[in-house]
Write a structure and sequence with these properties.
The complex is a heterotrimer of chains A (1005), B (98) and C (197). By secondary structure, chain A is α+β, with helices and mostly antiparallel strands. Chain A folds into six domains: 156 residues, 2Fe-2S iron-sulphur cluster binding domain, sarcosine oxidase, alpha subunit, N-terminal domain (Ubiquitin-like (UB roll)); 188 residues, 3-Layer(bba) Sandwich (FAD/NAD(P)-binding domain), CATH 3.50.50.60; 202 residues, FAD/NAD(P)-binding domain (3-Layer(bba) Sandwich); 146 residues, Gyrase A, domain 2; 89 residues, Aminomethyltransferase beta-barrel domains (Alpha-Beta Plaits, 2-Layer Sandwich), CATH 3.30.70; 99 residues, Elongation Factor Tu (Ef-tu), domain 3. Chain A contains 22 helices and 49 strands. The radius of gyration of chain A is 38 Å and the shape is elongated. Helix content of chain B is 9%, strand content 34%. In chain B, a hairpin with a 7-residue loop joins β4 and β5. Chain C folds into two domains: 89 residues, Probable tRNA modification gtpase trme, domain 1 (Gyrase A, domain 2); 79 residues, 2-Layer Sandwich (Alpha-Beta Plaits), CATH 3.30.70.1520. Chain C is built from five helices and eleven strands. The radius of gyration of chain C is 18 Å and the shape is globular. Classes of the chains: A alpha+beta (1005), B mainly beta (98), C alpha+beta (197). Chains in contact: A-B, A-C, B-C. The interface between A and C is large, with 59 and 58 residues.
């Protein structure tokens, strides 16, 4: 029977547009304008889900983002989404939805049998029951995991894209109900930049289902006119379908706009969701208040719904989810559901009002309509298992703590409950302002905040539409004024709305039962985590007296609904159980995200190849064209090695290393940091930041420098060259460039501003290519004829200015390979041109391009350290046998110097830099392998150091490594052992760290 | 994300343009060799961790590349002022907050 | 055979890109390659420094934070209280550097950074939305024509100057240009992108 719960007329749906969809494999029809929830209710679908712990059947409870039970799995395959609230999902053609739990099906769930043993599954059940024996926990966990859980994550990449946009505005308004919309009108009029966002697909909030008139016309008229007015302003951005998910420091708000989730499973047009990042001068919070249910026995059976949701389904979606209604309320607003139900032609069995009397208008109207009212009564239990079939109504005392007489069962299939209205304070506490309990409104109000924030409307416990417009307009004008627009007064005419006389609401949260809390049928506080009133009482009895502990022990508020319906009730139950007031008990703080946010929206376009900048040198296209494989060094891509067709990596490395040592190789070294330092105090500045002495470095000369942190540990290194007496170029490691520049500025600006130096980064300006090997001079001579390359004219550690391949160049005779080596620097626009020219010139010498791996091997054969590879921030120059770098007669106590004599740095058993020669020439030690002196020592073994760099050397004919070993400098010749995770133990001899050309002759040829 | 006033650029910028460098006003000892190990260790490692007013050093990395100081409340994250290196903060304790 | 006198061929940072050739779009992109870029540092409180710069460039040194000055060929931009970026469309940075070094006295520094950065010009009806998708700077209200800011564009650091109501100049570091270009290409898909060569 199709849509048997749909009313014949009315609603904001379009009956001309029929939509086919499926749930749990069955086909149904709905209309455009439906949510999945309203369409399911229209079709009489009762059971949507199974609860988390007890697997109890659950149906639709509410109508919006607060929905705890009607949570479904949307879609299939790569675009499936778990735990979508059916109440927020707009219906689209072909929508596919499935339950998130229930086996074999949501209608017949075997886990429910276990659930019936629920008395034996109190809070802490898993922890208490499955702790021992400890070694079986992983076995238990495996089965518990299968039994629990909601929803499935997709297992293929998301086919949709997402993006972000940044806004600055004067007034950001959260919530487009009557308060938010009127604030927007007033603020927009001043010319302020206004953004207004609402999580629903239509702006309007309570106006979408109210029956009150505005200026004598239906509310929908004022709503339509207002939205048109706002959309006409060029200084207003209107964002429906947009949830403000987080409110961050200094009025920074994140809004997630669902651009296409109402159109289909995959976006038909651009980004599926858009994150709006808003920096607002003033924020107006107008998110309204959330109705909370009363708690009573079996209040989770399908058919128990929020009273205001009944009105929404009737008025907005033209759906009556049942036939016979019982209302249980502690305030006037619950009567609206009965009135609307009656007007829709359905049967109202009766209204149980926990209060003794009320003279409110809604009560008067209910009486006039002849509806049955039981004052001082409440529904104490719902009857049914898969659907409500009756409500147990009983008289209760004025305090709401006891049943005072016999109860009576009334046949019905809907129980509408209204415990009261909780201000939606969530965003107000994201930046730390704890909400404050207010007895007058029976709710928490936003706490005192340092943010430039205004709160208006139901958020402040103000529910009269009559007053809301005036307050909204005034707040909008005030906020705009504080942002610098207008004088704070509102000139827009306040719409006329009737004042609805209202009786005093009662502070009732847990409805008493004829049995005690621990013996009555379950009274659910948090539906999503199956937390009951008994569970909360148990928690407090076990000593969890802070509400923060009660929350975490019972899992109250943990679910995807973040406790929107359960938290306040939970606090009240805890307070009662502890014999405290709610004000004394307090509340836990809400945190972003207000409703679940998909990771795609958080990533935006910063994904795949745009995840992080990939930085390239000027020679990248050549490397790619010549078969290079690449390595990530920081954000840079550097050629790793250049395999020829058919070569294994080791074969390539062997070839590159041998070619470089025997003839000539070329490396792109452009990524290293380069900093230009100018000023008369440049030498003094360098003296202070490096260990070395710089005072006497002549123009045209280069020197290797070691940079330490104040704690004496090596931070960075590089060659610094003297361009002029007051002009140096300092180089850094690739990854350390930005760090070093900031470091230098830190010392200059905060400690030594009197030193006349200026630093400028030139990392990108210079392309750098290094040619190394016995034939490198010959190659250079073919492309450069204005530098005297004679070995005694252009010595090792000199640099010269000249022209290379027609381009002005600086050539540095420095070597990281230990071979004759020239580092050619040209302005980067010419980098590729010069590289190509050198490759051409080097053809006759079989010039071999090599990458970072060969670079690593060659320098390691010479025992040259790589900061960040052989050092890790915990080694000193002395540890690395680099005392030769430390200037002996430097007047200034350079950075790190004082730390050489700290007790820790002057220990004698520190890890020291050594070489390692594995006993088996073909075994390569893993980098990071830990060394022990005695391979037979019992576990835990004493670790005395680790491998920092490790390779096979074609040049040496055996494997080798660099390492830091305790007292290594005194233990050359000894063996150390490396027990590996795969069970092998590798033996290696401690050697000198220079394996090749120990005398260092080759770089001088 | 914090909104920070750079006193050099003289306008507010987003926090991700800056790099936080910890406690402000730490002066390097003029004569490190004269300090005991304990005094030197204190300079190296010990930092204030107040609940409330904190004076801290920031660097405008993706901006003017200048350092400056900020007075920020570590509980509310409210920023009371930004001031240049060498200047004194106007807000030194809770009592100075207007 | 020596190739000492081989013809020199310079490449801009986007020389490797095969640009698409759409005729219509809401955003127009142009790389202004081979401009001369100089980083000048000095003391704006030194009258000699200020007047020397003005004499050589024919423009007043911008001393107000985030300001710039420009004529047909040259622009100079405030980067920090003691740093300016000089951009010369003529590509005559070597000459400018030599003149500055000859004229300036006191504590200053001139550094040629032409090889290390390039200029992207973005314009079009949708350029402001593109800017909002790419950076957290308030280009709508806080970036009038002539103002220069150093800030983020996507995840790269750029120097940004507004040339006209719907025209922006980005100075992008060479090694980030490929990333910034691909970001622009990606985020302008919804508007359509026109390339000016």
């Amino acid at each position: 029977m199709s849509q048997n719960k749909r009313l014949a007329s009315g609603g904001r749906i379009d009956r001309k547009k029929v939509i086919n969809f499926s749930f749990d494999g069955k086909s149904y029809k709905g209309f455009e304008g439906d949510t999945l929830a309203s369409a399911l209710l229209a079709n009489g679908v009762d059971i949507i889900a199974r609860s988390f712990k007890y697997s109890r059947p659950r149906g639709i409870t509410g109508h919006g983002s607060e929905e705890p039970n009607g949570v479904i799995q949307l879609g299939t395959g790569a675009s499936t989404i778990p735990n979508v609230r059916a109440t927020q999902q707009e219906l689209y053609a072909g929508l596919v939805a499935n339950p998130v739990a229930g086996w074999p099906s949501v209608n017949f769930d075997l886990m429910a049998t276990l659930g019936k043993a629920g008395a034996m599954m109190p809070p802490g059940f898993y922890y208490k029951t499955f702790m021992y024996p400890q070694k079986l926990w992983m076995t238990y966990e495996h089965f518990i995991r299968k039994a629990a859980g909601l929803g499935k994550a997709p297992t293929a990449p998301d086919p949709d894209t997402y993006d972000k946009i940044n806004h600055h505005c004067d007034v950001m308004i959260v919530g487009a109900g009557p308060a938010g919309l009127s604030a927007a009108l007033a603020a927009a009029k001043t010319g302020a930049r206004v953004i207004i966002a609402d999580e629903q697909n239509e702006m309007g909030g309570s106006l979408l289902s109210t029956t009150q008139t505005i200026d004598g016309a239906p509310a929908s008229q004022w709503l339509q006119d207002t939205i048109e007015t706002l959309e006409d302003y060029s200084n207003v951005i209107v964002l429906p379908r947009s949830t403000v998910m987080g409110y961050y420091d200094h009025n920074f708000l994140v809004v997630i706009e669902r651009r296409t989730d109402h159109l289909g499973e995959i976006s038909p047009r651009g980004a599926r969701q858009r994150m709006h990042r808003v920096r607002a001068k003033q924020v107006i919070l107008a998110p309204g208040a959330q109705e909370r249910p009363l708690i009573f026995a079996n209040n989770d059976i399908p058919g128990v719904m929020l009273a205001s949701s009944i009105s929404v389904y009737l008025n907005r979606y033209a759906v009556a989810p049942g036939n016979a209604l019982v209302v249980s309320t502690a305030n006037d607003s619950g009567y609206q559901a009965a009135i609307d139900w009656h007007k829709a032609g359905r049967k109202v069995i009766g209204i149980a009002d926990s209060r003794a009397e009320s003279n409110g208008e809604l009560v008067e109207e209910a009486k006039k309509l002849g509806l049955k009212i039981w004052f001082s009564h409440a529904v104490i239990e719902a009857k049914g298992s898969r659907r409500v079939y009756a409500a147990t109504v009983a008289p209760i005392n004025a305090e709401g703590t006891q049943v005072t007489g016999a109860s009576q069962n009334y046949d019905c299939d809907i129980i509408a409950t209204s415990g009261g209205w909780s201000p939606v304070v969530h965003l107000s506490c994201h930046t730390g302002a704890r909400p404050v309990w207010n007895d007058d409104i029976i709710g928490f109000l936003p706490g005192k905040t340092v943010q430039k924030q205004h709160c208006v409307g139901s958020l402040m416990g103000q529910h009269q539409l009559h007053d809301t417009f005036e307050q909204g307009l005034a707040t909008g004008a005030q906020a705009a004024c504080e942002a610098g627009f207008g004088d704070g007064s509102n000139s827009i005419k306040v719409p006329s709305v009737d004042l609805v006389k209202t009786g005093q609401a009662q502070a009732l949260f847990l409805v008493p039962h004829s049995k005690s809390v621990s013996r009555a049928p379950k009274q659910f506080v948090d539906m999503q985590n199956d937390v009951t009133a008994a569970g909360i009482e148990l928690a407090t009895r076990e000593g969890f007296e802070s509400i923060e502990h009660v929350k975490r022990y019972t899992a109250l508020g943990f679910g995807t609904d973040q406790g929107k319906l359960g938290n306040i009730n939970g606090m009240a139950v805890a307070a009662q159980s502890l014999n405290k007031t709610i004000a004394e008990t307090g509340t836990t703080i809400f945190r972003p995200s207000y409703t679940p946010t998909t990771f795609g929206a958080i990533a935006g376009r910063d994904t795949d190849s745009l995840f992080d900048p990939i930085r390239y040198t000027a020679m990248q296209s050549w490397h790619e064209a010549n078969g290079a494989l690449f390595e990530d060094v920081g954000q840079w891509k550097r050629p790793w090695y250049f395999p020829k067709p058919g070569e294994t990596m080791q074969q390539t490395l062997d070839r590159e290393c041998l070619a470089t040592r025997n003839s000539v190789g070329i490396l792109d070294a452009s990524t290293l940091g380069k900093i230009d330092i100018q000023g008369k105090d440049a030498r003094e500045f360098l003296n202070r930041v490096y260990t070395n002495a710089w005072s006497k470095l002549a123009v045209g000369k280069c020197r290797y420098g070691l940079m330490l942190k104040e704690d004496g540990m090596i931070m960075d290194d590089g060659v610094t060259s003297c361009i002029a007496d007051d002009h140096f170029i300092l180089t850094t490691t690739t990854g350390g460039a930005a760090n070093v520049l900031e470091w230098l500025e830190l010392w200059h600006q905060t400690e030594w501003p009197e030193l006349e130096v200026y630093m400028t980064s030139v990392t990108d300006h210079w392309s750098t290519m290094t040619i190394s090997g016995p034939n490198s001079r010959k190659v250079l001579a073919k492309v450069c004829d204005d530098i005297d390359l004679d070995k005694d004219s252009f010595k090792f550690m000199d640099w010269r200015s000249g022209t290379v391949a027609g381009v002005k160049s600086r050539v540095f005779r420095i070597s990281f390979t230990g071979e004759l080596s020239y580092e050619i620097n040209v302005q980067a626009n010419h980098g590729l041109h010069v590289w190509e020219a050198i490759m051409e010139a080097g053809k006759e010498f079989d010039i071999t391009p090599y990458g970072t791996e060969t670079m690593h091997v060659l320098r390691a054969e010479k025992g040259f350290i790589i900061v960040g590879q052989d050092t890790d921030g915990s080694v000193t120059p002395q540890d690395m046998d680099m005392s030769w770098c430390i200037g002996k007669n430097k007047e200034f106590s350079f950075i790190g110097k004082r730390s050489f004599t700290r007790p820790d740095t002057s220990r004698t058993d520190r890890k020291q830099f050594v070489g390692l020669k594995p006993k088996d020439a073909n075994v390569i030690l893993p980098e990071g392998a830990q060394a022990v002196r005695n391979p037979n020592e019992s576990i835990p073994m004493t670790m005395v150091g680790h491998v920092t760099s490790s390779y096979y050397s074609a040049v040496l004919g055996h494997s080798f490594a660099l390492a830091v070993i305790k007292d290594g400098h005194n233990r050359k010749g000894e063996s150390v052992y490396f027990p590996l995770a795969d069970g092998r133990t590798i033996e290696a001899e401690i050697t000198d760290y220079v394996f090749y050309d120990a005398k260092g002759e080759k770089q001088h040829v | 994300m914090l909104h920070i006033f750079c006193p050099h650029c003289q306008e507010y910028r987003e926090e991700d343009e800056f790099h936080y460098r910890g406690q402000a006003h730490i002066v390097r000892p003029k004569d490190p060799e004269a300090l005991t190990d304990e005094e030197w260790g204190s300079y190296l490692f010990f930092r204030k961790n107040p609940k409330g007013i904190h004076h801290e050093l920031w660097y405008h990395t993706t901006g003017c590349r200048q350092f400056f100081n900020v007075t920020r409340d570590t509980v509310t994250y409210k920023i009371h002022e930004s001031y240049k290196i060498g200047e004194e903060p106007a807000v030194k304790s809770e009592g100075d907050v207007t | 055979m020596s190739n000492v006198n081989v013809k020199v061929r310079p490449d801009t940072p986007l020389a490797h890109i095969s640009f698409p050739s759409a005729k219509q779009g809401g955003v127009t992109f142009q790389e202004r390659g081979f401009y001369g870029h100089l980083t000048l540092r000095g003391n704006s409180g030194d009258a000699g420094f200020v007047s020397s710069v003005e004499e050589i460039l024919g423009l007043s040194l911008p001393v107000k934070a985030l300001s710039s000055a420009s004529n047909a060929d040259v622009s100079i931009h405030w980067i920090s209280p003691n740093e300016w970026l000089i951009i010369s469309a003529k590509g005559d940075e070597a000459e400018l550097e030599a003149n500055l070094r000859a004229k300036l006295t006191g504590h200053f520094s001139v550094v040629d950074v032409s090889g290390g950065q390039t200029v992207f010009e973005l314009s079009g009806d949708d350029v402001i939305t593109l800017m909002k998708k790419s950076c957290g700077y308030d280009v709508e209200a806080e970036l009038p024509v002539g103002k220069t800011v150093t800030t983020h564009f996507a995840k790269a650091s750029v120097v940004m100057n507004r040339l006209d109501e719907k025209c922006f100049m980005l100075v992008v570091r060479r090694s980030f240009s490929d990333y910034v270009w691909r970001w622009i290409e990606d985020s302008s898909q919804e508007f359509g992108l026109v390339i000016k060569l």
